[in-house]
Amino acid sequence: MAKSKLVAANEKIADTVVADYKKIENGVVGEYQKIEDGVVSGFTKISDKFVDSFLTHDGETVEEAKTRLKAEEEARHSQKS
């Protein structure tokens, strides 16, 4: 009888520890995700502004310029191979 009470108490403690760990893990992962999203968003804004200011041709959108630049880069790499 005493052994089953200890097992039940251990299971209850284990469940509490696991639940608390999951809360902490979810909080840390969630905060990391927010930071990562902010960094990526900031980089994208800066990249778009740079492409718009220095690399677009007349009448070309930022997306068109990025597509053109990517194609030019792939062409250079294929020439090297």
Task: Tell me about this structure.
This protein is mostly helical and 81 residues long. It has two helices and no strands. The chain has helices spanning 2-55, 62-80. Helix 1 (2-55) packs across helix 2. It is elongated, with a radius of gyration of 27 Å. The model has no long low-confidence stretch (mean pLDDT 94).
SSE topology:
Blueprint: H1 2-55, H2 62-80
Helix pairs in contact: 1-2
Give the structural class.
mainly alpha
Q: Helix content range of the residues, please?
A: over 70%
The helix-strand sequence is HH
| Proportion of residues in extended strands | under 5%
Alpha plus pi helix count: 2
Question: Which runs of at least 5 residues are low in confidence (pLDDT < 50)?
Answer: none
Average of pLDDT: 94
How far apart are the termini? 76 Å
Number of strands: 0
The coarse overall form would be elongated
Rg calculated over all Cα atoms: 27 Å
Largest sheet geometry:
none
Characteristics of this structure?
single chain, 81 residues, 2 helices, elongated
Provide a concise account of the structure shown:
The protein is mostly helical and 81 residues long. It has helices at 2-55, 62-80.
